[in-house]
Design brief:
Strand order of the largest sheet: 1-2
Distance between the termini: 58 Å
Radius of gyration: 28 Å
Structural class: mainly alpha
Shape: elongated
Number of strands: 2
Number of helices: 19
Strand content: under 5%
Length: about 375
């Protein structure tokens, strides 16, 4: 077939010498093979031998297998165009693969460059769960590319901004029929989200880390990291020095306090309540009635867990009035749920049943399957 490269009696010996020089390493052989359409086997072998000799005196590369991989990586890099090098070095920032949209936003990669890098076996195109495309960089290539990066901070900032936007843009799918669908891209990019969060924490970006840690928690049902990882991110973000500079920053802190309390209350309801109260103060400071009502309601939930269902019922009732006043229909449904939990804890099963059924009906009317 056209385009198929054949091993013949004329090139077999040279191809075997190339494989021997590369110590049979699959990645090195794959990278070398990608250049056969533009280099003859003899020219490729001569180049690799020269490069190998140049590296042989480098004491940092004492193991021949490592040296052979360095030879082919250096060669592949040198044969790329300037724009391809720039893109590949930026793509090294991705952990666990990336989409075309992410590559464009973070690495300024167009389809032409992605195709060229795929042809050189420096990246691989794989199908994703929705029938689209996802790209992968072999870990050895990725680490090599990262070492070539001259402006690491700018690329990492773009990487963080892209995945923060992704997480926050999909949060509204929580407790809706499309939640599993929208959780898929979050699940596929948990490696990138984790790397982005770690970078924000290391940079001391309190607002960014708070927004990411609280945002990704919305996907805990289907695709988030483990509860321990989410809690660790929240605690680390909350521990960073924080100075409110905008409504967005205050809301980020308030939301993180609320979410942190939610995840803490089964094991330590008192500590959860203290954190939720911090969120309540902040939500009130920016006039976020729905956020404040959620904190009051979940403070009540923690009261029930702590053995004080009377306080829990009173706080859930207050939150219900607030949610109804500000038009938070999801909040109303959750308030009926907490009222049911309080009545159940008090032994009033008729009232508990009534509240639970009302909560279920509310969720059904909102097409919210998880709540229902």
């Amino acid at each position: 077939a056209a385009g198929v490269y054949a091993v013949t009696e004329h090139n077999a010996k040279t191809l075997g010498e190339i494989c021997d020089l590369l110590h049979g390493l699959p990645l090195a052989i794959e990278l070398a093979a990608s250049w056969i359409p533009v280099l003859s086997p003899r020219d490729l072998l001569d180049h690799l031998r020269r490069a190998d000799s140049a590296l042989a005196s480098d004491t940092a590369l004492v193991e021949e297998r490592h040296r052979s991989l360095a030879v082919i990586l250096d060669s592949s890099w040198s044969w790329l165009s300037a724009s391809e090098r720039t893109v590949l070095s930026a793509l090294g920032i991705f952990v666990g693969g990336f989409t075309r949209e992410a590559a464009e936003a973070v690495a300024s990669a167009d389809l032409g460059v992605l195709a060229a890098l795929a042809e050189r076996s420096l990246i691989q195109r794989l199908p994703d769960a929705q029938g689209g495309s996802r790209y992968q960089v072999h870990e050895l290539v990725r680490h090599y590319a990262l070492r070539q990066q001259e402006d690491d901070g700018t690329i990492r900032a773009r990487h963080f901004a892209y995945f923060l936007k992704l997480v926050e843009s999909l949060e509204t799918s929580w407790n809706t029929p499309v939640e599993p669908l929208w959780s898929n891209p979050i699940g596929a990019d948990l490696g990138n989200i984790g790397a982005a969060t770690a970078w924000a924490l290391a940079e001391g970006d309190a607002e960014g880390a708070l927004r990411m840690a609280a945002g990704v928690d919305a996907f805990w049902i289907f695709s988030s990291p483990s509860a321990a990882v989410r809690q660790a991110w929240l605690e680390a973000a909350l521990a960073l020095p924080w100075a409110p500079s905008s409504v967005v920053g205050i809301r980020a802190k308030a939301k993180a306090c609320h979410v942190g309390g939610l995840r803490m209350w089964p094991s330590d309801p008192a500590a959860a309540q203290r954190l939720i109260l911090q969120g309540l103060v902040l939500f009130r400071n920016i006039g976020d009635e729905a956020g404040a009502a959620a904190c009051i309601r979940d403070h009540g939930s923690a009261s029930i867990t702590a053995g004080d269902p009377h306080t829990g019922r009173r706080e859930a009732a207050e939150a219900l009035v607030r949610c109804q006043a500000c038009g938070d229909a999801q909040g109303v449904a959750w308030c009926y749920y907490v009222l049911g939990a309080a009545a159940f804890a008090l032994g009033d099963y008729t009232e508990a049943s009534s509240h639970f059924l009302e909560s279920a009906n509310q969720f059904e009317s909102l097409d919210s399957p998880f709540g229902a």
